[in-house]
Write a structure and sequence with these properties.
heterodimer, A: alpha+beta, Heat Shock Protein 90, five-stranded antiparallel β-sheet, 4 helices, B: alpha/beta, globular, binds adenosine-5'-triphosphate, binds magnesium ion
Chain lengths: 136, 123
Amino acid sequence: MAVAEEDIHVPIDRDVDVVTAREKGRELASRLGFSRTDLTLIATAISEVARNIVVYAGHGELVISPAQQGERCGIAILARDQGPGIPDIGKAMLDGFSTGKSLGLGLPGARRMMDEFEINSTVGAGTTVAMRKWVR
Amino acid sequence: MPVPILKQGAFLIACIQPGLSDHQLLMLEDHLSGEVERSRAEGVIIDVSALDVMDSFATRTLRSISQTTRLRGARTVVVGIQPDVAFAMIQLGLTMDDVSTALDLEEAIATLAAGRAKRHGRG
Ligand SMILES: Nc1ncnc2c1ncn2[C@@H]1O[C@H](COP(=O)(O)OP(=O)(O)OP(=O)(O)O)[C@@H](O)[C@H]1O
Ligand SMILES: [Mg+2]
């Protein structure tokens, strides 16, 4: 008998939470029937958005849940924080743009790894990244 | 749990375990540069075959380890990037251009030994 999957909430406060988030995401994605390659893409995308919370916002959370759309099933990942927000999302989504002296690949890379990617941010209020990927 | 560093002749070998935190990876960077100094190692092998994710932070840190040890006269070879992980790295836009890679430990040791022979004028 199939057990209904529940949303998984992972609080993100420190670097180890990034590891927890991607492990939980991989676990759920594996139960949902994703291929090995897709599991790695999903875990890597989770790692990037979770780390951005630790580095730029300090605190936040990830909500990982099964997604359904007609016949399709997949995984939904929501990353949200109440950090400083992003003044220019267009710039932040460019390969190589970083205010943290890093590679600037996390956000644009996560978008490439997932099927759907939406980012919303308000300066002073926080950032939300919603991503989905469908089982093929 | 810190990453153990083994010494094998003139080379150091570090095996990264899955689930390593950013902090532990930075500690490895510190330990390795200390060990290269102390043991006068000529090469460093970092085995990542157990890693199921190589994100921007891990890649950046491995590059940095490679650059630091090079300044200390040792070469770094990253071993065992899994095919899925390599594919995800490409999607992310990550490259290891400036880092030597090898498929397995044997190949890594051969690469380092060849470089060593050359430097010692026997290549
Ligand atoms: N949750 C967030 N809150 C505030 N700013 C953010 C957040 N996430 C991303 N940013 C901003 O967007 C920029 C781009 O993010 P992205 O993850 O693409 O690159 P990065 O974190 O700088 O480098 P990398 O992820 O490659 O290590 C960041 O430098 C930062 O300025
Ligand atoms: Mg980032």
